[in-house]
Design goal:
1 helix, mainly beta, nine-stranded mixed β-sheet
């Protein structure tokens, strides 16, 4: 893809998040599953969403701060990506999910439902984080098979060790 802009910020459709103003986006041409003229979600600034590839923010989802969505990643529903978080590759963040801090979601990973990924956590591969799950701290969740984590909080090294021991049984 060229350096051509694929969307514009709509100055007349905004959302206030604290002291920040987020702008609804609108596609300037068709790409991936997005049609020309389609309105997307909300971003604070153009550095939040790449103009390259098929990355997109759909619906009422929003991205702000120093967060980045790029590659072929999708953020949709009422999902939130903020802080220094990165969502990239073919990753999807949707529903009421939240990705924040220095967290990264990549590969074919999915974060959805009411799940939170925050802190320095990384979710990669084919991992799914859903339900009311919370993934935080400094660790990687790298999965080369389909795994769903639901309603679990991993906030200490001991809990991470127990999770790894459990997963190694399979």
């Amino acid at each position: 893809m060229t350096n051509k802009k694929k969307y514009e910020l709509l100055k007349n459709e905004t959302k206030k998040i604290g002291y920040k103003t987020l702008f609804r986006i609108q596609s300037l041409f068709s790409f991936g599953s997005v049609k020309k003229g389609e309105k997307g979600g909300f971003i604070e600034k153009e550095s939040n969403l790449s103009h390259e590839n098929n990355a997109w923010v759909f619906g009422d989802a929003w991205v702000h701060g120093d967060a980045h969505v790029y590659g072929d990643a999708h953020v949709s529903g009422n999902a939130q990506v903020y802080g220094n978080a990165w969502v990239f590759g073919d990753a999807q963040v949707y529903g009421n999910a939240s990705v924040s801090g220095n967290a990264q979601v990549s590969g074919n990973a999915q974060v959805f439902g009411d799940a939170w990924v925050f802190g320095d956590a990384w979710v990669h591969g084919n991992a799914s984080v859903s339900g009311n799950a919370q993934v935080s701290g400094r660790f990687d969740l790298i999965v080369n098979c389909n795994v769903e984590i639901s309603r679990i909080t991993i906030d200490t090294p001991e809990k991470l060790k127990k999770l790894i021991e459990f997963l190694n049984k399979f």
